[in-house]
Amino acid sequence: MPIKAWWGLFKQVANAWLDDYVPSMGAALAYYTMFSLAPLLLIVVSVAGLVFGEEAARGEIQAQLRDLMGDVGAGAVQGLLASVREPAEGLTATAVGLVLLVVGATTVFAELQDALDRIWGVPGRLRKSGWLTLVRARLMAFGMILALGFLLIVSLVTSAMIAAMGRSLDPVFGGWQGVVEAGNAIGGFLLVAIMFGLIYKVMPRQRVLVSDVWLGALIATLLFTGGKFLIGAYIGRSGVASGFGAAGSLVVVLLWVYFSAQILLVGAEFTCAYARTFGSHKMPNA
């Protein structure tokens, strides 16, 4: 595409970001995520734990959280996760707890679907609530959670394979540790891009092709990968964790979630603009 077309596309995304009230939608999404984060991670760890064991899956999650949020934010999320894992006493309490766990984990995806529908301009009649619609949305959300668990399994397999390759080749060639770290970084980047692509492709109540989402998913992944260092530097230098006292760790998590929500929705805006300008939703006179 010529530079003028790129400029017009990014200008369209910026205007849509304001017109669709993406900052407000991101705040709502961050709010729901705070309540869904612990049960969501618990289900993801349980799914991945079926293959590698719960300790390995939990260790991978903790490493990823520490890389994203730092020790303070990761500690807060681990505390929430530990509180959710406490077993309930009695069959009835266990059943009720399981239902609440699934509902809590899927709530954020229901809110995300609503946000994506607004970005795509899905008519209100297609977004009406009802028992059948609610059940269908929750099942789709649970499917996305299972997909996240599968991606965690892939991440564990990839990391294990790269580490094993590094251990076997390092004595022969030497200096293989850098290649191992680069391989893990590339693998993590690709998994995040796949996650973004799945969300943009599956979640909206709109026909979206794979060719419409891949560029938006890559841009969102680049923004997320680069932005996490900026937000990490801000949190580290601003003293926001200590400024809020006992609630500082939760504020750090909330900042990270809001930042991630903005990146996710900006990528969705780009995907929508790209599809309408160059992709499957292109108008005849566009």
Structure write-up:
- This protein is mainly α and 286 residues long.
- It has one domain.
- The protein has 9 helices and no strands.
- α3 (54-85) packs across α9 (248-277) and α5 runs antiparallel to α6.
- The protein is globular.
- InterPro entries: Virul_fac_BrkB (IPR017039).
- Keywords: Cell membrane, Membrane, Transmembrane, Transmembrane helix.
Layout of helices and strands, plus pairs?
Layout: H1 3-19, H2 22-52, H3 54-85, H4 91-120, H5 131-173, H6 177-202, H7 210-238, H8 240-243, H9 248-277
Q: What distinguishing features does this structure have?
A:
286 residues, membrane, 85% helix, single chain, transmembrane, Virul_fac_BrkB, mainly alpha
Brief summary:
The chain is an all-alpha fold and 286 residues long. It has helices at residues 3-19, 22-52, 54-85, 91-120, 131-173, 177-202, 210-238, 240-243, 248-277. It has one domain.
